Amino acid sequence: MEVPNAPEWVASCNCSICRKMGSLVAYYPDDGKVQISGETVPYIWGDRMIALHHCPTCACFTHWVSTGESYGRVGVSARLLDGFELRDGKFMFQGRELDVRYMDNAD
Predict the structure, then answer these.
(1) Helix (H) or strand (E) holding 102
(2) What b/e readout covers 60-75, taking b as 16+ CB neighbours within 10 angstroms?
(3) Which of 13, 29, 31, 83, CA to CA, is 20 to 30 A from 71?
(4) What's the pTM value of the predicted model, to 2 decimals?
């Protein structure tokens, strides 16, 4: 997975699937600069507005994309980014603490 730059913050969504996956999402502009390599499989549910992609081999959540009109951004799993770590209870990227924003998307 190639991203154009370090995330400024990560999102922790409280919808049923994100809670179960423990996903932390870094957002990037939907301009084609985020590159996902390898096969992924989409999972589409609920309002069917986004596709949550995962690896067919290990089932790790990789990213989400819009299924229709662009929201102007894509979300990638921050946990899979090189340089991401949990240190002393804090989410870090390349040694810098990341702000975690809690998203209220409960369904």
Answers:
(1) strand 99-103
(2) ebbbbbeeeeeeeebb
(3) 83
(4) 0.86
**Averaged pLDDT, groups of 10, the chain, 107 residues long:** 84 90 92 91 90 95 92 92 93 93 80
3-state secondary structure of 16: helix
Per-position DSSP letters for 31-83, written without gaps between them: SS--B--S--EEE--TT--EEEEE-TTT--EEEEEESSS--SEEEEEGGGSTT
Residue type for position 63: H
CA 10 to CA 96: how far, in whole Å? Answer: 13
